[in-house]
Design a protein that fits this description.
alpha/beta; Rossmann fold; five-stranded parallel β-sheet; two-stranded antiparallel sheet; 6 helices; globular
Length: about 140
């Protein structure tokens, strides 16, 4: 997995990793075990993961510990990201795009990262810089 120095990571993949009952758990564990790229997410994804894992505080804390130990880099959004997210929200109003997804699109543009690890098929539709597809690096 060294061909991608950085990979954006979406909520679904993180939930699948921490939830042993998730149908994609084994595939995601295998993916992360072989991945040497820096894994980047957003606070929106972190919030979603925490909410989706709410039934088990120990698992939530394992996730938080991994964030604290920089297993994942939680990239801060800046004012330009919010402006771009608003543009994307209008552009993808028919999906509709959710905040976490659109924040990842904005980050992909600002940080010039095309690679994304996601279970979300919307990333087959979303475009970087209005025309470039994402490089999905995880397919179950």
């Amino acid at each position: 997995m060294n061909i991608y120095p950085q990979i954006l990571v979406d909520t679904g993949l993180l939930v699948a990793f921490y939830d042993a009952a998730d149908q994609y758990h084994d595939a995601v564990v295998k993916f992360f075990a072989t991945c040497t790229s820096q894994l980047i997410t957003t606070v929106g994804c972190v919030t979603e993961v925490m909410w989706l894992l709410t039934s088990n505080w120990q698992v939530q804390n394992e996730f938080l510990t991994h964030l604290a130990n920089e297993v994942y880099c939680c990239q801060q959004l800046i004012s330009e990201d919010f402006a771009r997210i608003a543009e994307l929200n209008a552009q993808y109003a028919d999906l509709p795009g959710d905040f976490s997804d659109l924040a990842l699109v904005s980050l992909s543009e600002r940080l010039n990262i095309a690679a994304i690890a996601t279970l979300d098929k919307d990333f087959d539709i979303y475009r970087r810089y209005r025309k470039q597809p994402f490089e999905r690096v995880f397919r179950p």
